[in-house]
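Changelog-linked ticket: thymidine-5'-phosphate example.
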Amino acid sequence: MFISFEGSDGSGKTTQIQLLADHLRAAGRSVLTTREPGGTRIGDGIRQLLLDLAHTEMHARAETLLFNAARAQIVAEVIRPALAARITVLCDRFADSTLAYQGYGHQQEIAELERLIAYATGGLRPHLAIYLDIPPAEGIRRNRGRADGDWNRLDAQELSFYQRVETGYRQLIAQEPERWAVVDATRPRDEVHHDVVQALQRKLPALSQSL
Ligand code: TMP
């Protein structure tokens, strides 16, 4: 089973993935957590290229291709083999991030992005995408207050950009509601976790039979 977590920066994806992984493991499942961009040696190298504050000249198309190069690698090297071994994969972002950020945020053509994503993934899509829903301004506030000081090139966007990203996610969800679970991520983390588990039980009965 392949589940992605999506949402604004600062929506708590990393925490919620960890909580869900612990929950599923306690129920006896084999779980792999990973993230995009990254998750492989090549993907981590690409992540460094993408995040580096010095790379102010990076062209939007180069950025899109780099995200998708990292994606092609993680699909082939990590996600497909794990799924073949019946491991549940929880991924911090996947192709919907490209549609939301590059498509709606940076206003690149959606149809072109869809073709590129199909090439990178070979058509692999998550069974479920969990959208952690917080207002963009709240996400920015949380992100800037992060103790790890992990500020990077991709964080350096205006509020209007994050508002377009949020609009984009809402359009993606409206187009394919069965593929998404929307969880209010403004509440305390344990309540959000509870809702994530409930969403799984509703959306993926096959997975939740063993929860
Ligand atoms: P993270 O902070 O969730 O690790 O994500 C890194 C940044 O990369 C975040 O600002 C979203 C962005 N991103 C894209 O713009 N396009 C993509 O395809 C992916 C996977 C991430």
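Closing comment: Example verified and attached. The first helix runs from residue 13 to 26. The pocket of thymidine-5'-phosphate is lined by residues 9, 35-37, 67, 92-93, 97-98, 101-102, 154 (CB under 6 Å).
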